[in-house]
């Protein structure tokens, strides 16, 4: 039987849960879904992503193709894929280099994780909003509208994929037997991602430079510290703890409890990231303006699209 103390949120989780409960009310996801319901799906995009991922190579290749497809069309959903495709390629290299105790499990983990993203993208494109986690609905809707900053688009996608999807990915691939070894491999990915942060920032900065935004390196540094509520490493720890709870608690207790934890933190973090005051230091003077918004004040969607066309 799992010790009762392991079901109690850590101090950091408790703060994130409280913030999530408070901030979720800021976003009307039903109205958001209704506003998008009449938009036509893109059959070419669906053709790219409708089939399930079958291997690490398939994930790597199709994520890159999907990013290119969206970028060609000035679709800001490409921003998260700029981050995610590089993360996936880096983890793939680590698997090939023998960095993991159980490379087969690590490969299954990578494919299952990408499959969660693919399923969310397909659900959004088909307007099947009832099957879409709210964190993904907020992220995709913001990117599709093109009204957010590139930094917000990146972080909204990272939040939905890690804070929400990773809990269920770990359930898909299983955390046993030999849970300690799988936990060690899970933590090895943290180290891989930490080394990747600068490369990801550089890729995003290049896009910003294309539309003449200065100082993005300062605003995004460090990227992992700007992920709302839990941070990148904290969100991955949160997902592991959720997976343990789902595995060890009776299903009637563990599944609804973990679902509530995951949905609350992921949706609350998305609400924080989408807010007009995103980027404000809340410990500073309350009259401060958002440094991220100030940096991008003169950028519009047409400029972004034109810059993408020039770079293709």
Keywords:
single chain, 312 residues, mainly alpha, 14 helices, disordered C terminus
Structure characterization notes:
The protein is built from 14 helices and no strands. It has helices at residues 11-24, 29-36, 43-49, 56-72, 78-96, 103-125, 134-145, 150-173, 179-210, 216-220, 231-248, 251-274, 291-295, 301-311. It starts with 10 loop residues before the first helix and ends with a helix. With 312 residues, the chain is mainly α. The chain has one domain.
Secondary structure: helix percent = over 70%
Give me the secondary-structure category.
Answer: mainly alpha
Helix-strand sequence: HHHHHHHHHHHHHH
How many domains in all?
Answer: 1
Q: First CA to last CA: what distance?
A: 56 Å
- By DSSP, the count of extended strands is 0
Q: What is the tally of helical segments?
A: 14
Strand content: under 5%
Largest sheet: none
- pLDDT < 50 runs, ≥5 residues: 210-225, 280-312
- The best one-word shape is globular
Brief digest:
This protein has 312 residues and is mostly helical. Helix content is 70%, strand content 0%.
Blueprint (SSEs and pairs):
Elements lengths: L10 H14 L4 H8 L6 H7 L6 H17 L5 H19 L6 H23 L8 H12 L4 H24 L5 H32 L5 H5 L10 H18 L2 H24 L16 H5 L5 H11 L1
